[in-house]
Amino acid sequence: MSTTVQSPLAWEAGVDDAPVALSARGDLVAVAGAEGTVKVLDAAMGAEIGAFELPGGALTVALSPDAGHVVATGPMGYALWRRSDGRTTVRESGAWSAAAAWADGTRVAVASGRRALVLDADGGELWRTEPAASTVTDLAWMRQGRRLAVAAYGAVLCHERHTEKPVATYPYVGSHLALAVAPTGRWICSGNQDASIHIWRARDGGELTMSGYPEKVSRLAFDDTGFWLAADGAPDVTVWDFSGKGPEGTAPRSLRCHETVTALAWRPGAAGHLASGGADGTVALWHATAGRPQARLRPVRELDGTGAAVAALAWAGPHLLAVAWRDGQVRTYGVPSRTAL
After folding, report:
1. SS3 content of the chain, % helix, strand, coil (to 5)
2. Which sign does the torsion angle of CA 108, 50, 54, 91 carry?
3. What is the pTM of this model?
4. Quick one: CA dihedral 21, 261, 310, 337, positive or negative?
5. What order of strands is seen across the sheet that includes strand 329-334?
6. Smaller CB count within 10 Å for the chain: N or C?
7. Rounded distance, CA 327 to CA 307, Å?
8. SS3 assignment, position 43
9. Helix (H, G, I), strand (E, B) or coil at 206
10. 3-class DSSP state for residue 145?
11. What is the pLDDT of residues 86-139, one digit of tens each?
């Protein structure tokens, strides 16, 4: 039986328009609003460090690994903000920009229409991919930032540094909504419009499809070990075991709390702790790797929310969880040690 427990609240702040994305790194939290306002906040106190506007609205936001830069993407382009002096570089390309991914503190990949652009931290273009078959929907770095995976209709395409043409193609006929690459580099996974997860073994292209989800799969996340994949697409969060030979022939663990899952975020480290958020406003903390396959787990804790749908979750380290709700509220919660939620 789960217990609703209010973890110590570090701070609470409001943003001017409904949050759509959240990122946390070290001592910063960045939150993007639907109308294009991006605020950068101190993770410990909630004080505003900086802010900028992305014309046309925002879809995603991402802090660099060193918390020195922020990138935001949206329907009309992208923008980068520099912490050291607040400099903001805005690119109104008119191309749909649905994703961004940092390779390290100096390079970031940004979706721009049918291409992926690789930029330096101040927005200078380093190289770009050739056009994909359709709009790029997600991006992920592999091999410690040496290879870029790009998802678009019909395939995931992999590019080495400065290679316009893909060096590897992983085909699957359908619309890819989310992309997750295992930190081990062994697995590439896409969440799809056809209510499935498609999986490729990176070394040889071996394929596997997890189908039968009642809804489209639009959120995928590997934990830091690369052994566990969490996904939406059902009232339960499903958690697949990718250790050993992978998930073929196995059943996932099911995490039951929300009627509709709207956010997922693994706690940093190898403890198997996951945070999830729902359209009903609930935020749940899980020992997501406990039990056996086919086990239906209940939350270890539920955090009190605002009543609005959860827009996004992000960990600012192993002990601080940031949550944004659709009503404009942003909170951080102090969370106990990795060994006990």
Report:
1. 0, 50, 50
2. negative
3. 0.95
4. negative
5. 9-14, 329-334, 320-325, 310-315
6. N
7. 9
8. coil
9. coil
10. helix
11. 999 999 999 999 999 999 999 999 999 999 999 999 999 999 999 999 999 999
